[in-house]
Amino acid sequence: MNQGSSMTDALRPLLRRTLMIGLATLLVACSATRPPAPVEDRSAGRGARPVAEAPKPAAPASAPAAAPADLKPGTYVVKPGDTLMRIALENGQGWRDIARWNGIENPNLIEVGQVLRVAPPEGTAVATKPVTAPKVDAKPLPGAASASASGAASAPAATPAPAPAPLPKEADDDIPWGWPAAGPVISPFDEARSKGLGIGGRAGDPVLAAADGRVVYAGSGLRGYGNLVIVKHNATYLTAYAHNQTLLVKEDQAVRKGQKIAEMGNTDAERVQLHFEIRRQGKPIDPARLLPAR
Description:
This protein is an alpha+beta fold and 294 residues long. The protein contains seven helices and twelve strands. A hairpin with a 2-residue loop joins strand 11 (273-280) and strand 12 (283-285). The protein is elongated and about 135 Å long. 26% of the residues are buried.
């Protein structure tokens, strides 16, 4: 009896150690089979990403397309909001001329970033047409019958048309200007706010061409101008007559100084008036500096 008890006491520590090792092994095995729960950053609210997954850096924004640095003189890059009529006015050209130089069939289909030619192509007859046509075509208007009666009178009209050389700048500047309306000046030229003179009057008062020229626009497609007439006088100058009630001329028509081209109105304006601009190579200048004293 004593011998059996002694053997049991000797084996008890060994059994206890074996049991502890078995329990430890079982705990390790259980913990290895359960994946750890992800640690979430809940400060950003529901659906936030796990902290362990760093957010991907945002792709750098592409820089806005810049205008080509090698633009040639006499070209223009179309900007948002541009229209062919507006581009033509700002560059001192007729919109039909710009459409022809660029092969544009539909004037409403121009794209942002498109490069347009806004000056006549060199070495072509087109370059001289805006300069010579007004003076040649305007002369026969008042006396077409008398011109046909004299063979000598018709010859000069046909001769200057093919002339290749444009008029010099001194001749372009030498224009005998006249007032486009008889009313008082109600708003002076201000390059920042008003690019021309505001001339008052009554609805239906005559609007006159300020000099000989060719009508390059007659319509209401230019926002802020209402019913508008634009007359090109030579390669340098054009005039604009805005807010009319009625237009009396058509595009490509030759007009003479003092000819009635429209009737005063208030389209796109708060009151009846004529907004009158003179532009030199597309840039507005103060008409009061060129018009004769009253």
